Amino acid sequence: MAKKESRYHIILLRHAESEGNAQGYFQGQGDFPLTERGRKQAHALAARWKTEKRKFDHVIASPLMRTRDTAEIVANALDLPVEFDPIWMERHNGKVTGMKHEEGRKLLPIPHFRTPYDIFAGDGEGDWQLFLRAGEALHQLLLRPPGRYLIVSHGAILNTTMKAIVGVTPHANYQGPQFRFGNTAFATLTYIPDSHRWYIEGLNDRNHWRKEK
After folding, report:
1. 100/85 Cα distance (integer angstroms)
2. What is 155-171 written as a DSSP string?
3. What local confidence, expressed as pLDDT, does residue 3 receive?
4. Which 8-state DSSP code applies to residue 173?
5. Is 43 exposed, middle or buried (0-12, 13-18, 19+ CB in 10 A)?
6. Nearest to 49 by CA among 70, 67, 66
7. Which of 27, 65, 183, 189 is a good FRET partner for 35, with 20 to 30 A between their CA atoms?
8. 120 DSSP β-pair partners
9. Is residue 177 a contact partner of residue 165, using CB atoms and an 8 Å limit?
């Protein structure tokens, strides 16, 4: 009888380049499609993982267009279904959602001092709210059976999920350590529940796409 899996093997993947990325919008939970380059990035990652014979038991993605399309490109190549879960959506950017960066900063200038508990851009998610949601997303994932999980999500919430894993709470003025996630970059993690031990095995891996720094 095959031994039952007792560990979580988790990849946290940021979506490919979107029109919002390329054109300088506050995206948040606004919906933007992938650019042509973004689709190429996703296909390059899918080809890499197919060559590496990468295996997943579950693919879970934010339902926003840029994450959905990235997840489906990768999952189709690996012959896997995709589950969509809104808990993995990007930070709610409040009143600046869908605005160009310059326009949003004029409407709501960056305050001189911001605590982690402040609301973001009028009615969006502050750093502490996002941290709590990222923690709940992680908690829900670990209530599932151990296995191999691919999470396809967004830069801010993936960065905050990494902070929840290593025990770094939000700092004032968005200071403190950050975890970089480029377009189609991913972090590789293992969690052993019997000892509550995390192994961070890779960060910001985008070796399938060397056309940009």
Report:
1. 27
2. HHHHHHHHHHHHT-PPP
3. 58
4. G
5. middle
6. 70
7. 189
8. 124
9. no
